[in-house]
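re: the backbone from monday

yeah here it is again, tokenized this time
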């Protein structure tokens, strides 16, 4: 039996400096925990944040997939790729998937599906966000 933990982080700050400081503090805390590995902080912008523009074996691909948000309008789902991402990866331990932590900025509007009559979709995302999940294999 496995355990899945979902989490969501949100900061009211619009300051890039404050968002970066929060991630640095979070990483320092992670270094104090018995994680198998805590990665370096990455800082990406623009197309570098889009997992679809990465090779399938790119070590950042899963982090970027998790950083992508989804919004729904008129029963259609739209991926919202961050325009900026500050994050780090961890490996909690044997049998666990990576646990990624970070903050991202998202566009306020994404391209809709013109064939469905939707030109633009309001994302409703403001401020720095991040959400993800962690799956562990606890056995039993």
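seq for it, each position gets an aa:
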């Amino acid at each position: 039996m496995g355990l899945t933990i979902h989490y969501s982080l949100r900061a009211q700050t619009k300051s890039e400096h404050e968002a970066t400081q929060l991630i640095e503090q979070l990483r320092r805390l992670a270094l104090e925990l018995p994680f198998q590995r805590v990665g370096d902080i990455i800082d990406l912008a623009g197309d570098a944040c889009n997992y679809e523009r990465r090779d399938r074996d790119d070590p950042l691909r899963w982090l970027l997939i998790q950083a992508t948000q989804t919004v729904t309008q008129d029963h259609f789902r739209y991926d919202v790729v961050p325009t900026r991402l500050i994050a780090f990866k961890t490996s909690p331990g044997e049998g666990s998937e990576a646990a990624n932590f970070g903050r991202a900025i998202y566009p306020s509007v994404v391209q809709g599906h013109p064939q469905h009559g939707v030109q633009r979709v309001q994302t409703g995302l403001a401020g720095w966000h991040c959400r993800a999940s962690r799956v562990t294999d606890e056995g039993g």
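The CA atoms of residues 5 and 118 lie 34 Å apart. Confidence is low (pLDDT under 50) at residues 133-140.
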